[in-house]
Design goal:
Catalytic activity: Hydrolysis of alkylated DNA, releasing 3-methyladenine, 3-methylguanine, 7-methylguanine and 7-methyladenine
Number of helices: 6
Keywords: DNA damage, DNA repair, Hydrolase
Strand content: 15-25%
GO molecular function, one term: DNA binding
Structural class: alpha+beta
CATH superfamily: Methylpurine-DNA glycosylase (MPG)
Oligomer: single chain
Organism: Henosepilachna vigintioctopunctata
Mean pLDDT: 94
Order of helices and strands: HEEEEEHHHEEHEH
CATH architecture: Roll
Pfam families: Pur_DNA_glyco
Shape: globular
Largest sheet: 8 strands, antiparallel
CATH topology: 3-methyladenine DNA Glycosylase, Chain A
Length: about 220
Amino acid sequence: MKLTKSDFNLSCIEMGHFLLGKVLVRRLENNVIIKGKIVETECYLGGIDKASHSFGGRRTARNEAMFMPAGTAYVYMTYGMYYCFNISSKELGAAVLIRSLEPIQGIEKIEELRKMKMKNKISAKKFKTTELCNGPSKLCIGLDIRKDNLNRVDLCENDMLWLESPIDETDFTLVTCARIGIASCGEEWANKPLRFYIYQNLNVSKRDKKAEKYMESITL
């Protein structure tokens, strides 16, 4: 079942939890459908968060999607060549980064898109399925999510990119840990537990073994 606007009416952290296990669906221009289960998210809390593009209330043409209604796609370029895909929450300027997917449909197409991005296409390696979307930029390449085609798209009001509830919803254990790659924002915000992933899922971009060990000691 496709998620509706009411499903996205959540705070950033609530959405970071809620999106795990949901299915991201991408319809390409040739009507090929790609689906992947969200297995890792990362929250950026808006004006108070030194790692957020909207820290201090900063609002620009680049980050405008972070201020749009909950459930809006925010796609931005990083390192001048890769894209990252986020979803706005109900909190002003706050959004959830989708870090990793578990491919479940259109796997051959995902691999084709990944290889097209590689410089040496002839000798491009054979990807493991778990390597196809195990990172924010990898999943954007694999689903052809770019700033020019999907930024500011309402995920409830279009037929190119949307989210669904899984057909077979299964229980999973949630790992909570620090975000990745934001050390320059200072120790306080770099260490805040704002990354979430599905325990023991092989498609996660990077395990936090310390957080897993602690989680195991109190829950397993």
